């Protein structure tokens, strides 16, 4: 029997049709709104560019009036009129295929704990902050000469104790507030406030006696004593907006416990300068529409995703979801021969002159009690018992060299007469015997005089596969000498807490380096207390004296022998077993243009930004 539609069926289907039509209309309206928002964003960007161009022209007019140049002459921003710090970035904008737009998407191997200045403690958060917080000076990446960024001029007194900086006109933070000398003064005073959790920074700036605003665009740094790195110290201070951070002086605890308080004057900004949190799953920065600089960065957004697993990061790079990949040595050669990877990426292999080093830090004091590593003989023995050359050759496949000290072998700070200790099990065991360790019960494990086995935990970051392989390698190697190593893979945030509390036996990490390495924060005994970076509780009064003398010696020829003497103490004491310095093995998506190697490494992400994506190759266009 055939069923016919009745009135109820007609109403039902009519209602369903109405719902479908409504959904389509809603989707259409959302799409229209999205397009409208995209056009508004583009319009705002164009207006910001227009305003910047007008500002530049006005500045050019002012300069020409002051110089008595005819106003009928061209007033555009010529290369010679640009601040030196922006000339490289400006030259890139003149390339035929230059275009603004697209996103630069990268990945962090750790989940950041905080982006708040000083509260954050790692190189990853510093990388994000470098796009938001700016300094008075920056170095030219090729000549290494200082160039003015926020400051256009500076003067140093004959005694090297007074530094006067002249700020540029028209500086402003990303919320539109002007940046003046008062913000520079505030930054210093904020850091030196004891209630603010910034012990490392206070130690770093302790040589500055005062910072004074002479007028809105002039600021004076007065040093209490000579310091070899004084210009870098003053000129490299990241300037914080007084109006944004000053309220936290009344409630320091709110600042100390914050996760994402980050506002500055740089080319990028957080969409919500108070709202970032670790559960965001990464970091997204957007172009600062109020950026004061004469050259606008190309990328609309900078994005970092959190991908802790090395293999997962490589898969994500293969799929084109991130633009850069730092390769592990054991996969590097294979990737250079991979046709898919070679078709989509360029690769770089280099040892940066400022390459950092990895190490094992031996904690000498735990729970207020000396550990077995408080004895220098034990620390020396541990270095002899670790075959660092095999680690460099077998785990890092020759893309690394054995580290001798905190100083690079090419640095003037390094004494060429000091050579890395080679693997020597016999000598290591003899040193442990001198320290009171022996296999007293014949079980193959060393015990101390009270019969306690030589056993310790090695804390390492759980997301790094090569470090995990090294930990197992070390366990096997030390077992041959009668030492029980227990690898302890650990989350990054937990590692930071363990360092802060000094609650570990041994830990393997890495430090970044500079053109000249200051040992104060890592090895001076004053940096043990208050959460400083001497988290292994190492103290050597003679080393303290040498560090202090070297830092106060401005003349390089006199200073370098002091650093070499300090290096000799570290070589003898072995507070760290210095493991390796590694080459960078980097793959970068071919659509990213103007990636070049400089004296401080690749310029990718270097501020002012020098990279871009041609319009035809942009992936994230609106």
UniProtKB/TrEMBL annotation:
A GO biological process this protein is involved in? peptide transport
Superkingdom of the source species: Bacteria
Which InterPro entries does this UniProt record tie to the protein? Peptide/Ni-bd (IPR030678), SBP_5 (IPR039424), SBP_5_dom (IPR000914)
The record's keywords, sorted A to Z, are:
Membrane, Signal, Transmembrane, Transmembrane helix, Transport
**Record-annotated Solute-binding protein family domain positions:** 146-521
Cross-referenced Pfam families, in alphabetical order?
A: SBP_bac_5
| GO cellular component assignments | ATP-binding cassette (ABC) transporter complex; outer membrane-bounded periplasmic space
Membrane-spanning residues: 12-30
Single GO MF annotation: peptide transmembrane transporter activity
What protein family is recorded?
Belongs to the bacterial solute-binding protein 5 family.
Q: What is this protein called?
A: Peptide-binding protein
